[in-house]
Amino acid sequence: MSDLLLYIQLRLEPGCMGPQGKDHIEAFCQKENAGPWQNQFATVSVVPRYDKTLPEWEYRVKNKLLSAEQASKFISMHATTKSELEDNIESYMAEEIDAYMDGKL
User: Fold this and answer.
1) C-beta neighbour count of 85 within 10 angstroms
2) pLDDT 10s per residue in the chain (105 long)?
């Protein structure tokens, strides 16, 4: 299974970019997807989260949607936890958002 890639879709709420986030979220997501966060077994695509009924995180392998438990099992095969992976991605996104917004001010 080590050759399988985990595709993570992260839905970002416009508010994470501050009061004017709705004006920037689309462009930010496009920029992030042009050079996505990735590691040896996972890659992230970022989309705006306009519909709060949709989950913040979505995991797929070979286009098959994984449950949270399945995603945790897959991630644990790579010497990390789902929580650690999400924290790592969230930290990266926070830095990217800060850098993006600094360029817009």
Assistant:
1) 23
2) 457 899 999 999 999 999 999 999 999 999 999 999 999 999 999 999 999 999 999 999 999 999 999 999 999 999 999 999 999 999 999 999 999 999 875
